[in-house]
Amino acid sequence: MWSTSLAWLKDRSRWAILIAAVALLGAAWTAVSSASPQETAQGRIPGPRQGFLAPEFELELLGGGSFVLSEMRGSPLTLNLWASWCPPCRREMPALDAVYAEYQDQHLQVVGVNMTAQDSERAAIEFVRAMGLRFPIALDREGRVARLYQMRALPTTFFIDTQGVVQRVIVGGPMSELTLRSEIEALLAAVD
After folding, report:
1. What is the distance in angstroms between the CA of the first residue and the CA of the last residue of the chain?
2. What percent of the chain stands above pLDDT 70?
3. Using one digit for the tens of pLDDT, what is the confidence trace for 38-82?
4. Domain extents for the chain?
5. Domain spanning 40-191 has what CATH number?
6. Which residues contact 151 (CB under 8 A, 6 or more apart)?
């Protein structure tokens, strides 16, 4: 058995075929995973990354109305993806609410996107009431934003500047109020 394997390794034509196949697969992967010219021309790539425009979406807000991401342009935005059953999400909500209350007069927007497809609208409503949250809550009922933003963990927070460009992404939590303040103050400093 070993001698057969070694003989195969010594055959140069098989090596050439193997190298060509690996190169072809690499080229195919590069073509499939690269951003389209339209995406790069607009500063967009498939998922949200630092330095690129945050992907556009529209969701219904808890209590009525709708949230359209592009309508937030001109204001720094903290976008928090969460669920009511998520312990780190629950622990960081008071800090998010506190910084929202403190910085809203400086045009800071904070929007919570409830992962309603993984949660329930009823649980989200009860959670928001129990916490006394004052910032808007959008409902991702079909999981579209979770897919669009390539959510890997809850909570995930995106800090987006006045031009709609993602400046920082923090995956996981809970974030401390100090961390939130630091990130938000960096966004606000860029406005001045």
Report:
1. 72
2. 80
3. 444 444 445 678 889 999 999 999 999 999 999 999 999 999 999
4. 2-34, 40-191
5. 3.40.30.10
6. 81, 115, 145
